[in-house]
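Please, structure for the following, as C-alpha cells.
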Amino acid sequence: MQNPLHSRSTRLKAALSLLLLTALLAAPALPASAQSRAADVEADSTTASSQQVVNTMVGNEAASADHRGHYFYLAEERSEHTGGHLWSERVAETSWGKVHYLLAEDGQPLSGDRLAQEKARVAGEAADPEAFRKSEQARIDDEQHAKQMLELLPKAFLFDPPTTQGENIRIEFRPNPAYSPQSLEERVIHGMSGFVLIDRKRLRLHEVEGKLASDVSIGFGFLATIHAGSNFSSVRIPLEGKDWKTQALHTDINGRALFLKTIARQQQSQHSGFKKIPDNLSVADAVTLLERDPPDGPASTR
C-alpha cells in the first residue's frame, strides 16, 4: 500500500516542476485553423481584450504541441540536478527523449576518468534506447501535464489590459479569487502573479514570469508551505520556420515541508546554438553527433 505522505511529497515535487514546465511548451508550425485565429486577433490587436489574446495564445500552443521539431543545442545549467555546479552540455532531441553529453563542469573540460565515465554513460543509452526512453518517461508525462496546466491560464487568472512592449503584447496576471484550484499543483500555480509577453504577430508565448505574493500552505501548513517570493521565469525564441524553443529559464522556489524539511528548487539555464536535426534521429546517432568535435550540422540559428 502506498504511503500517503510519500504520495503527497511526490505530488508537491510535481507542483514545483510544473511552475517551470508550464513555460516550456516549445512547438513549431500551427495548423491552418490556429493560424486563422491568430491572424484574426492580431489584425484587431488594438481592440482585442487580454482574455481574447490569452485564449488565442493558449489555443495556438495546444494546437502545435504535437508537431515539435528536433534540435541540437548547447546548454548551461546550475541546479540541484548538477549539484550546484555549472554544467556545460550538448543536447540532441530525439523521439526517444533528450540525449545529454556533459562537456565541462564549472568551466573545466572533462578529462581522464570523468570523461571516460561520461562516454560510457551515453554509450549505454545508445546500446539500450528502450531503457533510455523509460528513463525519459517522467519528463514526457510532466510535459503532457504542463499542457493541461497552461489551459488553466484563462480560467485561473485575471488580466490587466494589454500593453505593447516592442514586438510583443504584455499582459499582467493575478489570481482569480473566483477560481477554486482542484489539485496541489493548481494551488501553487494559482498563487502566482506576474506577466506574459506574447508575440504580437504569431500570438505565441515569448516570455512568462510569475511570483508568489504570499505563502501557499498545503494541509493547513502541516504538510508544506511554499514561501512568498518564490518565482520563476522563462524566455522562448522563434527558430527556423515557426519552431520555438526555450532560451532561458530561472526558478527560485523555497519553502518548508513535513518534519521541517526545507524545500528548495533553484535552477538557472541558458540554451544557445540551436541547429535543426532530423526528426527520425536514433539515440545512437544522437550520441555520435554529440561526441563529434565540433558537431556537424547546419549553421546555428541563434
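Residues 1-12, 16-46, 297-302 have pLDDT under 50 and may be disordered. Residues 4-291 form one domain.
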